[in-house]
Design a protein that fits this description.
The protein has two domains: 185 residues, Jelly Rolls, CATH 2.60.120; 70 residues, Immunoglobulin-like. The protein is mainly beta and 259 residues long. It is globular. The longest helix has 11 residues. It contains four helices and 19 strands.
Length: 259
């Protein structure tokens, strides 16, 4: 597996305006504007009212990155976004990849056909959450607890951190941005996508049920090995062949005396 980390320095710009500045990823728009002294401290006195224009604007995050021919030789190349806040349109080399609409989940998209060996570009455009929630409210009036403090925003319609829209203890700062890690990952043959562990306790014994989700890019045989170790001592181990089914479960009985 090969990885290109896209965290670090990006360029942040207000769509349709001349405002542009260096930005950090992970991060968010308001934090960068305050750091660059383009905004007053929103936590000071009534400055909260002076920064609301940020919530109404659209914002672009852009940067370039290099891709090797070796990475493009992998069976699959994915763009992994751990957190996009919130309505985001993603492009690579000027071609649309996909759109996001939920701050609280991760996204993963196949981007191999869009990449080239050498320098590539990526743009993530964040659209105003307020525009969306106001449009939803016109179709169906649905109030939330914070609507009284921010009459023009309705967070009940969107999967975004609710306190961004104001609370009794905090200001209205409906920011946006690439708030968690972002990367490109290439792999071949197979990879472990996810794992869950269950415990079943009996007298003198514990059974660990290890459920793994495996994705394969080729038909060749793949073996999954699950080991439980106490430092260098192997407490229990089992391996199974992974077939066409993505979910594999391994049960490991362990004597409690060994735990």
């Amino acid at each position: 597996m090969q990885t290109i980390e896209l965290n670090g320095k990006w360029t942040l710009a207000q769509v349709g305006e001349e405002l542009s500045l260096a930005a950090n990823v992970p991060g968010d728009v308001m934090t960068e504007l305050v750091r660059a002294k383009k905004l007053p401290d929103p936590y000071y006195r009534e400055n909260e009212t002076l920064v609301q224009w940020v919530c109404e604007a659209d914002w672009d995050y852009t940067r370039t990155f290099k891709v090797s021919a070796k990475l493009l030789g992998e069976d699959q190349v994915l763009l992994q976004c751990e957190g996009l806040d919130t309505f985001a349109d993603v492009e690579i080399n000027g071609t649309a990849v996909a759109s996001a609409d939920n701050m609280h989940r991760t996204y993963e998209w196949d981007v191999k056909p869009l990449l080239k060996a050498g320098t590539n570009s990526i743009r993530v455009r964040f659209r105003s959450v307020n525009d969306y929630t106001r449009a939803c409210f016109k179709k169906r009036a649905l109030y939330s607890r914070v609507s009284e403090s921010h009459p023009d925003a309705y967070p009940a319609f969107v999967r975004k951190e609710a306190c961004n829209f104001g609370w009794d203890w905090g200001p209205i700062l409906a920011t946006c941005g690439i708030w968690r890690a972002i990367r490109i990952v290439g792999y071949s043959v197979a990879r472990l996508e996810d794992m869950a562990i269950e415990q079943a306790h009996e007298k003198g014994k514990v059974t660990l049920g290890v459920a793994c989700r495996v994705s394969r890019t080729q038909r060749q045989a793949v073996t999954l090995r699950v080991s439980v170790r106490d430092l260098d001592f192997v407490v229990a181990e089992q391996q199974v062949a992974v077939g066409a089914v993505k979910m594999v479960r391994v049960d490991l009985p362990i004597a409690k005396a060994r735990l």
